[in-house]
Automatic annotation (TrEMBL):
The protein's name: Transglycosylase SLT domain-containing protein
Biological classification of the source: Bacteria, Bacillati, Actinomycetota, Actinomycetes, Kitasatosporales
Gene3D superfamilies (UniProt xref): 1.10.530.10
Domain Transglycosylase SLT stretches: 136-206
SUPFAM superfamilies, per database record: Lysozyme-like
Keywords linked to the UniProt accession: Signal
Length: 211
């Protein structure tokens, strides 16, 4: 069958069809390339995952900061409470000291016993006026400078001294805070002896002989 030649108009239409088809194919390829991720992009994590991790880390840091702040606040409150309690105790002790100082006791046996009883009451040391007076009269006759230089204590180098004839080691062990640290001081001697008697016999009132 003899080849048929296309007239110029038909040839132009056919060329246009091929051109459109080629353009469509090229466009499809370009779209595919743009949609498909590159190896570098495919390896990178999704931005949303990174943001989520950052949020979790930030939350942990804030939680630790809150915990540290709470501990610091608690410690500060405890320090304030301790300071207030210390101040209250100091004020109470100061008032007690002023009250003792304000009380006037005569400088004689009666005054020494009554002052010692006031201190013993504050310190929780048992004893009565009668018990103290009875033992003082037996031990020293009421002389605060009385000293025993002949018994076993004296032979050992620690003679008994004072109203209630106390040796130095016993005085040092049972000395009552707030009284003079002098063995022959009348009030210090009485309170130390009463403190010792309370420990050994329950009270100075229970003592009826050498102790």
């Amino acid at each position: 069958m003899p080849a048929q030649s296309l007239n110029p108009a038909a040839r132009t239409v056919r060329i246009r069809k091929f051109s459109v088809s080629a353009l469509c194919a090229a466009g499809a390829a370009a779209v595919a390339l743009s949609v498909a991720p590159s190896p570098a992009h495919a390896a990178a994590p999704a931005p949303r995952s990174v943001a989520a991790s950052a949020q979790v880390s930030a939350a942990g840091v804030f939680a630790q900061a809150d915990a540290i702040a709470a501990q610091a606040l608690k410690a500060e409150k405890a320090a304030k409470v301790a300071k207030a309690e210390k101040a209250a105790k100091a004020e109470k002790a100061d008032k007690a000291a002023k009250a003792k100082k304000a009380a006037s006791y005569p400088d004689n046996l009666d005054g020494w016993i009554r002052e010692a009883l006031a201190i013993m009451k504050d310190e929780g040391i048992p004893g009565s006026y009668e018990g103290l007076h009875r033992n003082i009269m037996r031990e020293s006759g009421g002389d605060p400078e009385a000293a025993n230089d002949w018994d076993i204590n004296a032979q050992n180098g620690t003679p008994s001294k004072g109203l209630l004839q106390v040796i130095q080691p016993t005085f040092d062990a049972y000395h009552v805070e707030g009284t003079p640290k002098e063995l022959t001081d009348p009030v210090a001697n009485i309170t130390a002896a009463a403190n010792y008697a309370a420990d050994r016999y329950g009270s100075i009132d229970n003592v009826d002989s050498a102790y």
